[in-house]
């Protein structure tokens, strides 16, 4: 992130409650121009709430919401330079496709030819050029989705907000829309803020992800950062599959779990600090007992097309998920192996700032 | 933003005052020691006392409730049968014809209903009186019951019936044990609607009532033209209480019966514009 | 199969008797009456009398005109009410309060207005307090319109409220999001989408208003003569059922026309 540029949207200690429920807790975030952001979290985590605060559908209890450095907390929705693609689209059923897309430009007072051109270019952008005279109820879900995108973009927003726009589509359509949305975002060069509960979708589309839970941003970073270096149990569990076991950090680069010491690449903890250890299933390999760092018994396996998902249990009773290319024999005792860099260590209750600082400090150590 | 909000509330307050003003006006004057609805001569229960010794008006109140109770009961039975018939009818054309016929009395002006019933009773030589009023009330209440019951039937899971058949239930058992319990909220709502329609009716009754029989509406109409006693106000106050009670009962029923679909309960809570 | 037929017969018998006796027969009898003389001979004379008479035509025009005014007044008061009610938190409860007055006997409410509006009544005492001389408020067009509108308001609010409540709140959010202010959202999104409710409300108010007779008698003081009053008079006072039926048939035709005009057309046809 470049330092000089004023973020297009910034949240400064934003709080929001509905009655007794604390929906957002002290949210800080910055969004820059021209990138694809994703708010990722389970339902009720507060991700859609953030979107509604940006669009002006909700007002924060406290804190600042800044748009290009100016506080917009009390600016009504219709005066903000953002537009939203709503969940279930919210297309106006009393208007046809053309009138839906023309809604914003008409309100802005554009003349007829300008409106026509605008609508045409927007419908072309979403590949619905021939549909302008159709009624909304004549469209499929995927087509309605495209109209909703065209309608929001027709207002030339600086930020496009997308509230779980793909969740109602079937798997294949969802996949292709993911690519298309990403392409549209790159073509227009504007900021997209995308809300989803689907971690796969978030990883595939985003430049930057905010992982949310219980009204708190748990972690933010590039998809790679978040996948490789989850900050806590929640993130590790929510993003991808994880094996998480308790461990003790003996000293820098040595962790103790399942009764053994392992070499790893994390540092900066207190000596003998209790930690959680993450190992991704795809980083684990089955091997002979002699070569195994851990000895496990195969419990269960299922074929997943491109791999076998194997469940194994070690002698301490911990369950291990392994993704293997070859099938295993049920009940067999085998070894489990992994590399030091596959081990990821998480501290309990570490804040994002501390986490980033620690990562930086020992990574600098390595270089020196 | 805030100022605007208050203006809109003020408007609502105005509308509610307008809606309730006449009703509270009636009730307040029922306690007037004087004998007319003007001025204020102090508080008194005397009109309530008058009311309770006026055997004619008490008899009419009893008549009115009797007609309402009997007509809504019978209308509920016949209307439920009608709804079941329409529901079981799979020919779409016949179904639509029956639905349209069903709705005729719902949309007809009351004067038309009253006048045409009057012709009917006269042509078949029926003496006007309690029975003609009762029959008329049953007649205009049936379509309401049908309209309240049909949506319940349509919401009913059809595999319930299939399952009951599969388990060996005969017609009667299926109706009593499976269908009726499911649609009972609709029947109850229909019964209540019919009951209030009947209590509220003026025009139809006015046409088909003979000389010997009167309901409350008809009685007030004839008294209002001669100049009225505040006894009627006392009666209004008590009727208001009864209505309030009925509304509460109905509200509880419709709340309970339409857990998922909130609207269904209130959608048809419109006693007819009878008697205008 | 046989069981099913038995069942259907069991259901159709009471319901069918009702349909024949109380829906079809009365209307047929009324139609029949309108084409007969008092001796039972066929005639078109009743219709001739109706259409040949300036009085009846004026009365018909009056009925339509008054019904129109009542409908417009009711709509103007009810739409904002329904719209604002719909934004309240406990809206079902408030709606119930709107409905509650309709459960009070209509005659009682009309009767209250006699007390409110009479020459020595409350409204006059109130305005004379401000130095205005007592007016004859009863038995005027305005009092008639006021009372009729009062009676009809809940029947207009209810369908409009229901259709507003059905509108997905996200649509107005989307409208604001696209730059529309409150007024534009109402004008372009909410109002068009609530049209089915408005039409239902117009049906529920206009048709009964065409045939008012009780209010015309008690409040309008026979100054306002409508189709309803005429029917009542022919049936119950002058005993000219044939002409009464003729007016009835015309009222039914007017009702059908209203229904067709306010019918909710299939959406495709609305498009220009």
Q: Would you mind describing this structure in some detail?
A:
- The complex is a heterotrimer of chains A (368), B (276) and C (272).
- With 368 residues, chain A is an alpha+beta fold.
- Chain A has three domains: 9-228, P-loop containing nucleotide triphosphate hydrolases (Rossmann fold); 241-280 and 341-368, no CATH class; 285-337, Nucleic acid-binding proteins (OB fold (Dihydrolipoamide Acetyltransferase, E2P)), CATH 2.40.50.
- Chain A has helices at 47-55, 97-107, 112-125, 141-153, 171-188, 199-205, 223-228, 233-238, 352-367, and strands at 9-18, 21-31, 36-40, 62-67, 70-71, 82-85, 159-163, 191-196, 208-213, 216-221, 243-251, 254-257, 260-263, 273-279, 285-287, 294-303, 308-314, 319-324, 333-337, 344-347.
- By secondary structure, chain B is mainly alpha-helical.
- Chain B has a single domain (56-267), classed as MetI-like (MetI-like fold, Orthogonal Bundle).
- In chain B, 78% of the residues lie in helices and 0% in strands.
- Chain B is built from twelve helices and no strands.
- Chain B has helices at 2-29, 46-53, 55-88, 92-107, 110-123, 130-155, 158-166, 171-200, 203-208, 216-226, 231-257, 262-267.
- In chain B, helix 1 crosses helix 11 (231-257), helix 3 (55-88) packs across helix 8 and helix 6 packs across helix 8.
- With 272 residues, chain C is mainly alpha-helical.
- Chain C has a single domain, classed as MetI-like fold (Orthogonal Bundle), CATH 1.10.3720.
- Chain C contains 14 helices and no strands.
- In chain C, helix 1 (2-34) crosses helix 13 (241-261), helix 2 (45-52) crosses helix 13 (241-261) and helix 3 (54-85) packs antiparallel against helix 10 (195-210).
- The longest helix of chain C is centred in the N-terminal third of the chain and has 33 residues, at 2-34.
- Chain C is globular and about 70 Å long.
- The chains are: A alpha+beta (368), B mainly alpha (276), C mainly alpha (272).
């Amino acid at each position: 992130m470049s330092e000089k540029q004023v973020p297009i949207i910034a949240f400064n200690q934003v709080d929001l409650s509905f009655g007794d429920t604390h929906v957002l807790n002290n949210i800080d975030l910055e969004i820059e121009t021209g990138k694809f952001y994703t708010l990722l979290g389970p339902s009720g985590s507060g991700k859609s709430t953030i979107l509604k605060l940006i669009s002006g559908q909700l007002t924060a209890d406290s804190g600042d919401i800044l748009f290009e450095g100016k506080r917009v907390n009390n600016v009504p929705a219709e005066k903000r330079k953002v537009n939203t693609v709503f969940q279930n689209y919210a297309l106006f059923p009393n208007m046809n496709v053309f009138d839906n897309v023309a809604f914003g430009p008409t309100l802005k007072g554009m003349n007829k030819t300008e409106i026509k051109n605008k609508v045409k270019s927007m419908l072309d952008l979403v590949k619905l050029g021939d549909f302008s005279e159709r009624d909304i109820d004549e469209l499929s879900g995927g087509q309605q989705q495209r109209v909703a995108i065209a309608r929001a973009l027709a207002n030339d927003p600086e930020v496009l907000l997308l509230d779980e726009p793909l969740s109602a589509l079937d798997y294949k359509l969802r996949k292709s829309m993911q690519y298309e949305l990403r392409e549209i975002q790159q073509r227009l060069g504007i900021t997209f803020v995308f809300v989803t509960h689907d971690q796969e979708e978030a990883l595939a589309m985003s430049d930057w992800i905010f992982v949310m839970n219980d009204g708190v941003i748990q972690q933010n970073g590039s998809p790679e950062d978040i996948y490789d270096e989850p900050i806590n149990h929640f993130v590790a569990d929510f993003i991808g599959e994880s094996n998480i076991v308790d461990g003790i950090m003996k000293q820098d680069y040595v962790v103790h779990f399942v009764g053994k010491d392992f070499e790893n690449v994390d540092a900066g903890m207190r000596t003998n600090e209790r930690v959680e250890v993450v190992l991704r299933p795809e980083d684990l390999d089955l091997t002979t007992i002699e070569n195994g760092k851990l000895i496990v018994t195969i419990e269960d396996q299922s074929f997943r097309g491109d791999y076998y998902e194997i469940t194994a249990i070690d002698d301490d009773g911990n369950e291990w998920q392994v993704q293997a290319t070859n099938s295993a024999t049920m009940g067999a005792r085998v070894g489990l192996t992994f590399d030091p860099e596959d081990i990821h260590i998480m501290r309990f209750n570490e804040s994002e700032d501390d986490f980033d600082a620690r990562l930086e400090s020992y990574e600098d150590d390595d270089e020196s | 933003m805030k100022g605007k909000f208050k203006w809109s509330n003020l408007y609502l307050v105005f509308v509610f005052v307008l809606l309730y003003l006449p009703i509270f006006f009636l009730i307040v004057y029922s306690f007037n020691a004087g004998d007319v609805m003007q001025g204020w001569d102090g508080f008194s229960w005397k009109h309530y006392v008058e009311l309770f010794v006026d055997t004619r008006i008490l008899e009419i109140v009893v008549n009115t409730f009797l007609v309402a109770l009997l007509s809504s009961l019978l209308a509920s039975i016949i209307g439920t049968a009608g709804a079941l018939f329409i529901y079981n009818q799979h020919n779409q054309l016949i179904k639509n014809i029956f639905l349209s016929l069903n709705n005729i009395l719902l949309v007809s002006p009351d004067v038309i209903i009253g006048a045409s019933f009057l012709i009917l009773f006269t042509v078949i030589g029926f003496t006007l009186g309690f029975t003609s009023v009762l029959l008329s009330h049953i007649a205009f209440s049936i379509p309401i019951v049908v309209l309240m019951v049909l949506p319940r039937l349509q919401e009913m899971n059809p595999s319930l019936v299939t399952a009951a058949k599969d388990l060996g239930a005969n017609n009667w058992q299926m109706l009593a044990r499976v269908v009726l319990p499911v649609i009972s909220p609709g029947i109850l709502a229909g019964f209540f609607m019919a009951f209030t329609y009947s209590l509220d009716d003026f025009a139809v009754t006015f046409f088909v009532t003979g000389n010997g029989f009167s309901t409350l509406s008809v009685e007030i109409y004839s008294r209002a033209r001669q100049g009225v006693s505040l006894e009627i106000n006392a009666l209004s106050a008590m009727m208001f209480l009864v209505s309030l009670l009925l509304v509460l009962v109905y509200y509880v029923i419709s709340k309970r019966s339409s857990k998922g679909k909130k609207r269904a309960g209130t959608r048809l809570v419109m006693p007819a514009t009878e008697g205008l | 199969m046989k069981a099913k037929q038995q069942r259907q017969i069991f259901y159709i018998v009471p319901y069918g008797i009702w349909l024949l006796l109380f829906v079809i027969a009365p209307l047929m009898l009324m139609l029949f009456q309108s084409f007969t003389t008092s001796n039972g001979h066929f005639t078109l004379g009743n219709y001739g009398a109706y259409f040949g008479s300036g009085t009846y035509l004026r009365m018909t025009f009056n009925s339509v005109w008054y019904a129109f005014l009542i409908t417009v007044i009711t709509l103007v008061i009810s739409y904002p009410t329904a719209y604002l009610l719909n934004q309240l938190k406990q809206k079902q409860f408030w709606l119930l309060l709107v409905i509650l007055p309709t459960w009070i006997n209509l005659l009682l409410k009309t009767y209250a207005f006699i007390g409110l509006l009479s020459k020595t009544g409350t409204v006059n005492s109130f305005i004379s307090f401000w130095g205005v001389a007592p007016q004859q408020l009863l038995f005027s067009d305005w009092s008639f319109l006021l009372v009729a509108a009062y009676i009809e308001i809940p029947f207009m609010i209810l369908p409009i409220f229901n259709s507003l409540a059905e509108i997905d709140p996200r649509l107005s959010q989307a409208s604001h999001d696209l730059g529309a202010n409150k007024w534009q959202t109402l004008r372009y999104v909410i109002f068009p989408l609530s049209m089915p409710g408005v039409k239902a409300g117009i049906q529920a108010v206009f048709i009964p208003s065409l045939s008012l007779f009780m209010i015309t008698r008690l409040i309008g003081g026979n100054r306002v003569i409508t189709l309803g009053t005429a029917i009542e008079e022919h049936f119950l006072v002058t005993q000219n059922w044939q002409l009464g039926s003729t007016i009835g048939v015309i009222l039914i035709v007017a009702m059908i026309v209203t229904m067709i005009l306010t019918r909710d057309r299939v959406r495709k046809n609305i498009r220009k």
